[in-house]
Design a protein that fits this description.
Blueprint (H helix, E strand, L loop, with lengths): L2 E4 L5 H10 L6 H17 L1 H12 L13 H9 L3 H18 L7 E4 L5 E8 L2 E5 L8 H14 L3 E5 L9 H9 L4 E3 L3 H10 L9 E3 L4 H10 L4 E2 L7 E6 L5 H12 L6 E6 L2 H15 L5 H11 L1 E4 L3 H11 L3 E5 L3 H5 L7 E4 L5 H6 L25 E8 L2 H17 L3 H11 L3
Parallel strand pairs: 1-11, 4-5, 4-7, 5-6, 7-8, 9-10, 9-12, 10-11, 12-13
Antiparallel strand pairs: 2-3, 3-14
Helix pairs in contact: 2-3, 2-8, 2-9, 4-7, 5-6, 5-7, 6-7, 8-9, 10-11, 10-12, 16-17
Length: 432
């Protein structure tokens, strides 16, 4: 079911690198199509937005008023949501809010010995757009995780889109959006939705930054519009790495590998262990557990193509392997997880011990589930309140400050052959 790699073989590094990079190739033809869609919507606004929604959703007709949900539609949709799911969304909302409230940025001021005033402040973004997937699955949790940090940051206007023109929308997604006080909910998707947020149309406002996961077309569109608008990150398919030992429960390990694999055929589940018996038992249990899984086809494809079990020698070797993977989610499912925690530097989010499956983090543990993928945890972090804030320095130099510090600025500017810079300081400190 999943491929087994052993670090003792000479081919390990080569094989390991191959499977880590296997999912990273983007289609050239898709890139060309996305570029065409984006530039068409930039030029023709709603006209092109409607054209592509009709084309990609195979609709015969579509009018502007159908691009977003009316208040009456929203109320009707929410009324169909079960009380149990509503209560679970409410609980998740409270826990995520309480965690993100701790992510505070403190403004500060410094006065130096020349009485120059130097300060650092932050302010929220004005408008953001949140993309929520609506294809193979529906994610109220994505609404909460992408909107709540913006609410805490103080963003005034949050807009959301979920592809749903061709089918019924999940009432949980709409309820979560209303819970987060989303200003308007659109039912458009794909590259055309990203372009609409980036450039604005008659129906869709131009935003300052776009958040949220999506398929390959969405990812490519975010790449294309970056610079015109901010983006949260370029997130690839989801992934989990599990560190397990002889004390781990192979049935639970197997369940966690499957939980990640059912997201997407391109998801990647990796087990790293120093116990061969655990790896073999887990492999057997994967086949057994998959038989009763509703999304068996998706999970099987993911595990077959990208699933790995790595047999390593010891704590140091396992830690080195995990730091190379830099996984989106890391479960340390060992008897003494803190031994590994001290050595792991690269991971989006870490789950310690047997009772911390990654699924808890996906929904309501509290920390954000929007995390760096495909090794980008080596240099980036998960979504937070800080991603919705702009930080600015404020500089006020006094007369005595420029007279004492200015000569050094002039020296440096001349060294860099920026004589205009030097003169702009020199002109202020010339003796009369």
């Amino acid at each position: 079911m999943i491929k087994i790699l052993d670090t003792k073989y000479k081919s390990f590094k080569k094989d390991f690198s191959f499977y880590l990079n296997l999912r990273k190739n983007y289609s050239v033809s898709k890139s060309f199509l996305v570029r065409k869609v984006v530039h068409d919507i930039k030029k023709n606004k709603d006209k092109s937005l409607l054209k592509y929604e009709k084309k990609f959703n195979k609709l015969n007709r579509l009018v502007k008023k159908e691009i977003f949900y009316s208040e009456s539609e929203i109320k009707k949709i929410i009324s169909s949501l079960s009380p149990e799911v509503k209560n679970s969304i409410d609980l998740a909302y409270r826990r995520i809010v309480n965690f993100h409230k701790k992510q505070k940025f403190n403004n500060f001021k410094v006065n130096d010995k020349f009485n120059n005033n130097l300060s650092y402040r932050c302010s929220p973004l004005e408008k953001v757009g949140v993309y929520v997937p609506g294809g193979k699955a529906s994610y109220p949790s994505s609404v909460l995780m992408n909107c709540i940090p913006g609410i805490i940051a103080g963003v005034k206007e949050i807009y959301m889109t979920v592809p749903s023109l061709k089918k019924e929308v999940d009432p949980g997604v709409i309820y979560a959006a209303k819970k987060c006080k989303v200003k308007r909910i659109y039912r458009i998707g794909g590259a055309q939705a990203i372009a609409a947020f980036a450039y604005g149309t008659e129906s869709v406002p131009k935003v300052d930054k776009i958040f949220g996961p999506g398929n390959e077309y969405v990812i490519l569109a975010k790449k294309e519009v970056f610079g015109e608008v901010g983006i949260d990150m370029i997130a690839g398919p989801s992934e989990v790495t599990i560190i397990a030992d002889k004390f781990s429960n192979p049935e639970w390990v197997s369940a966690d590998l499957i939980a990640q694999a059912e997201h997407d055929e391109l998801a990647q589940s990796i087990l790293v262990s120093n116990d061969k018996n655990l790896i073999l038992k887990t492999g057997y249990l994967l086949k057994k557990q998959l038989k009763k899984l509703p999304k068996k086809k998706i999970a099987t494809e993911s595990l077959k193509n990208f699933g790995l079990a790595i047999l390593a020698k010891n704590v140091n070797e396992i830690s080195d392997i995990v730091n190379i993977i830099a996984p989106e989610h890391l479960e340390i499912f060992t008897r003494k997880p803190n031994i590994y925690l001290k050595k792991i530097k690269n991971a989006g989010s870490i789950f310690l011990g047997p009772y911390s499956p990654e699924a808890m983090g996906d929904y309501l543990a509290g920390p954000n589930h929007v995390l760096p993928t495909s090794g980008t945890a080596k240099f980036s972090s998960g979504l937070s309140v800080y991603d919705f804030l702009k930080r600015q320095s404020v500089v006020k130099i006094t007369k005595s400050g420029i007279e004492r510090l200015g000569p050094s600025v002039i020296n440096l500017a001349k060294h860099e052959k920026l004589y205009g810079h030097a003169e702009s300081v020199q002109i202020r400190i010339k003796k009369g």
